[in-house]
Each structure stands twice: as C-alpha cells, then as structure tokens.
Amino acid sequence: MVAKMAKVYIVGAGPGDPGLITVKGADLLRRADLVVYAGSLVNPDLLKLCKKEAQLVNSHGKKLSELVDLMAQAALEGKLVVRLASGDPSLYGSLKEMKEELNKRKVEIEVIPGVSSLFAGAAALKEEFTVPEGPQSLVITRLPGRTPVRSQEALERFAATGASIAVFLSADRVDEIKQRALKAGLPGDTPVAVVYRASWPEEKIIWNDLKNLSQPEGIKGSAIVYILPGAKLEGKRSFLYGEKPEVGRKSFEDAFSILEVTKSTSVVESLISSFPKAQVLESGSLRKRVRRAWNIKNPIVFVGPVGVAVRMVSPLLKDKFSDPPVLCLDIAGSFVVVVTGGHHGGNRLARRIAKALGAVPVITTGTETLGVISLEEIVEERELEIVGGNTKRFNAMSIAREPIYTVGMGWRRDISQKDLKLALKSLKGYVDLEKVAVFATASIKKKDAVEKLLPLIPQDAALVIVPEKVLSGYSGISPSRAKDKLGLPGVAESAALAVLPQGEIVVPKKVVGNVTFAVARWCGE
Questions:
Q1: 497 and 415 fall within a common domain
Q2: Same domain flag for 396 and 463
Q3: Cβ–Cβ contacts within 10 Å for residue 251, how many?
Q4: What is the DSSP-derived secondary structure letter of residue 452?
Q5: Residue 283 to residue 218: CA distance in whole angstroms
Q6: How far apart (Å, rounded) are the C-alpha atoms in residues 83 and 45?
Q7: Based on the structure, what is the number of domains in the chain?
Q8: By CB neighbour count within 10 A (0-12 exposed, 13-18 middle, 19+ buried), where does 370 fall?
Q9: What's the rounded Cα separation, in Å, for the pair 415 and 55?
C-alpha cells in the first residue's frame, strides 16, 4: 500500500471582500490547524473563520525557506495546513517556488483557486474584456522591474493587437504605460481605468482616455491598470442567448477604416465627406495601422495600389465569415476594387462608395457578375444565420444554374448524434447528399446543430439556422406537432423552404426515430 503524502493546501483568498472566497477555501480555513497568510494583502476578516486553536502565522517579512519549513513540518505531523494567498494563486505569486520546496520535503500541494483582483476590478467597472465586434482576447501582463519581462512580451506588442489588457504591479508607472500604448498605435481615445484595491472598502476607480491618462495621486501597490478598447463600443450584442450575429452579412452603417498607402488628400476628404462615420487611421506604420483596423472589424478601404493591400492583409486572413471586407480605391478615385469579403458587405460598400465618388465598382464574385443569387444574399435578405460549413456548393450550383437542394431538419430535445446519423443515412434514400447545398434547422436547435449535426454534413454544404419568426412565414405540406408546441407550421419543411427563394418541397417530411427531415429544390427559374 502506497503511503499517503503529506499535503499543504494553497488557497486563493480572493481579491479582498471576505465574501468572495470559495466555499471550498472557506471550509479548509475552518478546519485548518495551521494557516500561513499574506498579512499585507489578505483581509483579516477571513481569519475569523479559523478555529480558536488554529495557529495563525503572518508571512509578511519572513523568508520563503522559513515558511516552507514551518508548513512542511506541520503537514508531516498530520496537521491540516493552509497557505492563504491573495487573489488567485496562479497569478503573480510564489506558487512555483513553494511547490518545488515543499516537494523536496516530501510534501505535495493542492491548489484551491480564488477570485482574482483581475475579475473583481472588471466587476467594479461593470465591463467585460471580450466585446462583440471588438476585443476577443485578454492579456495579463506587467512592466519590467526586479522581475524582467521578455522583449516579445513587451506591452507595446500586446497593445498593437487591440486586445483588452490588464497591467499588474505597475500602477506607479501609469505614464510609462500610456507612452508604450500610444507608441503601439492605440488610438488616444481608448478607454483606460485604474482600479485600486478592488472589492475592499477603500476601493477607488479612475477612468480616463489614453491620451489624457496621468499618474493618479496616492495610488500605488494594489492597483490594476485596464486598457479596454471594447469599452467604447456601444450597442453591440453578445449573441450568447441566441440573437442573430452578423454572419453571412455585415451591417456597418457606413463605418469603415481608411488607410492611405499613397497620399491622396482629395480622395480621402471625399470619402469622409460622404461617409462621416468612416475613420482615417494615421499614426504608426502601415502594417500597424492595418492590424488596428483589422481588430476594429469594420471594412478596410485602402487608398493606393491593390498589390499593397493584398500583401498587408494576407497574413491576417482566417475565414470569410469573421474577416472584415477589404476594398481598394485608386488615388484618382476612379475605381473601387473589392479585394475580399464581397459577399459579406464588401460588394455593397463598393457600390455605395462608387456612387458617392462617381467611381466604377470592380466586383469579381461569380454570382454577382452573372446576376445570380448567392447564399450570402439569401441569408442577409431573410435574416438567417450561417453557423458552419461552406457556401461554395450553393453558389457553384447557382452559377451553373443547376437544381439546388436544401434539407430542413427538426428533432426532439436531447437528440444524440447517433440519431442524426441514422436520419442522414435514411435521407440518402431520397436525395444524393452530394447535391445538397444547405442543411437548415430552427434557432432553438442551434446548439445541437453546431455540436452534433455540423460534423456529419458534407464539407461543401452550409449549415443554416432559421429564426422562429422566419419559420412562421412558411407553411409546409405536412401536418406537424410543432404548430401546437412551438406555434410554428413545422420545422423540417419550413426550414427547407426558408433557404430557397422559390423552392418546392420534393421530399415531404419524413420521421426517422426522433428526427424529421424534408427536402426542397429550386431550379433557379
């Protein structure tokens, strides 16, 4: 039988408010025989949870080796030992060194996470780090001091990405933070907040924009500087609860970023005059300006050669549903070339700019040039949502004027992927899956559709979600219990028809176990 190792519990105390310690952390404090706590950082009210006979040791001013010896000896004697660390033990603490030293003494550790001051500060600000159409990343960093920071982790590099940033252990160097962020090309109106002792009674919050940021009086130590590009984005929806995101279409309200490759004052002035919401990005190198514009997610209009635009954006391209449209306008204002994202707002914006400037829109997407409909246009017009797959098959069939097939599907709650596989196997008896361009279902099925159905459909086909308000406008030819349960005429047939402008049901609703499906066809006439 393997002997059980002695153990020390490293418990995150939370940011300051004693009510923010975890249930497990509080339970360990109540049972602990020895508690070693960071006296200058941990709220003393937490120690009131400890039993009267517990030994309480303030670690302030003591050497790590002294503390480790004390905890190891107690743990080896069979006592319950807690090292009470501020915030969460994984951030800017001594967890690694403590683990190594305790392990040398045949003592293991168990870490109980805590609420970091990082999140207590965000709660105090009532802000989030990830914002729709804004930052999708959070960087936790610090300025170099006694602990060096590698050059590749310099604040300037992170700031250039447009991510949200939390700067720890640097609150007495706010001016330096400001200069580094501006040097990286962050706009001067970027919101910045300094939060001092988040969740404590003496908590302080100071807001400013980056260009006017200055060192707050009396704030040092326990403060975090937050750089929050997303805080100025008003009216953006998170879509976490099923509202429709802008996938398959972009609604930019004439807001786009202008990047001058070649100086052309008259063209830029004409753009700004015609589109007041457009923004000229001027500070920093062209490459830095491109990255800033990319992170804003609005369309990008280069003024200069197409070749430069292509070279600048090619390393940033990921997929057409999330990349911003890229356009290029020559310095004479004669041609507006759509470089990327034509079906996702680029073509529409090119036409608007061309009309305003008296230019010629240069559009090369096949469906547009041949005057046939694209799936992206249908999605935009009918307020549907493409959640996966590819529009390639639909658009190729539309260009070739071949019959286009869509499959509408519905299923009961808690459907298994096995059930969906069986339904697709049965579907093959009615239609060649290689001819199906779209699989569609209702928005209440979205989670299952993305997680379970998407991996099963052909790669060239698209998975489309149809909102209930759109479904209700279509009536299938088969009776459905969905009318009674959801107030809808039926999911399978209605979803299939919702995707096709003038389609017809060619395979009425079929029931396979817990799944229903129907097939619609459109011949493009």
A1: yes
A2: yes
A3: 9
A4: I
A5: 33
A6: 16
A7: 4
A8: exposed
A9: 55
- Are 80 and 110 in contact by the 8 Å Cβ rule? The answer is no
> Tokens for 62?
């003591």
Could you tell me if residue 408 is inside a domain? yes
Q: How many residues does the chain have?
A: 525
How far apart are alpha carbons 439 and 375 in whole angstroms? 12
Element (H, E) at 259: strand 257-260
Question: Of 217, 232, 247, at which residue does a domain stop?
Answer: 232
Owning domain of residue 427: 375-522
Do 225 and 268 share a domain, yes or no?
no
238 located within any domain = no
Domain-embedded: residue 416: yes
**Whether the Cβ atoms of residue 250 and residue 300 lie closer than 8 Å to each other:** no
Write out pLDDT tens, residues 361-414: 998 887 777 777 788 878 877 778 888 888 888 888 888 888 889 988 888 878
Strand order of the β-sheet with 204-209 is 138-142, 164-168, 223-227, 191-196, 204-209
Give a yes or no: residue 246 inside a domain.
no
Q: What are phi and psi of 467, to 5 degrees?
A: -60, 155
C-alpha distances (whole Å) from 126 to each of 120, 203, 443 are 10, 14, 30
End of a domain among 59, 82, 114?
114
Helix (H) or strand (E) holding 68: helix 64-76
Verify that 104 and 124 share a domain, yes or no. no
Q: 91, 75, 5, 77: which is closest to 36 by C-alpha?
A: 75
| Residue 106 backbone class (left: φ over 0; alpha: ψ -120 to 50; beta: rest) | left
Mean pLDDT score of the chain: 84
The one-letter code for the residue type at 107 is V
pLDDT tens digit string along 166-201? 999 988 899 999 999 988 888 888 899 999 989 988
* Helix (H) or strand (E) segment spanning residue 206: strand 204-209
Give me the CATH number covering residue 78: 3.40.1010.10
Contact criterion met (CB below 8 Å) for 301 and 281: no
Question: Helices marked H in 95-183 — which ranges?
Answer: 95-104, 117-125, 155-159, 174-183
